[in-house]
Amino acid sequence: MEIKSTSTMTDQEIERLFKWREQVFPIEGKGIQWSKSERHILVYENGEAIAHMGFGRFSVVGSRASDVIGVGGVVVRPECQGRKIPELMFEYLAQTEELDACKLPKTLFCPKRLGPYYGKHGFQEYKEGFEFLQNDEYQSSKQFLLMAQGLADMTGKLKIASLPW
Fold this sequence. Notes:
This protein is of the alpha+beta class. It is built from 4 helices and 10 strands; from the N terminus they run E-H-H-E-E-E-H-E-H-E-E-E-E-E. The protein has a single domain, classed as 3-Layer(aba) Sandwich (Aminopeptidase), CATH 3.40.630. Strands 1, 2, 3, 4, 5, 6, 7, 8, 9 and 10 form a 10-stranded mixed sheet that branches.
């Protein structure tokens, strides 16, 4: 396996990884406008993309302001699941200096049912609530969780001055 980071993806990689978007990204996120990833971690096997994790740098404000790395679009092709590939991508993210990812807290949004899965990767639910922008207005959602690594000292409802990631 080869892991690399890039700012762009080919049409072939997008098709190969996201063609079953409806099954991969569930109903919980429907109707929400999502941020586009600044960077993409791609895993290749035999020259073919088999997994993706997008990430970008975002600002949040709770008891203090903080920049965070927002993770999104975590997907592994069905025939490659069960091989701990997301673990490899999270390790890569924790070590990369791109966008200062190795230094900043990591965050992601996920359906409630995936909270325990991301808990195994060191993420904890941010329980004090959050709001994000949609059509230039702040809104909250009970459809998914905000999971975080490295925000343990943050308190209060988080205001995210962007679309969620």
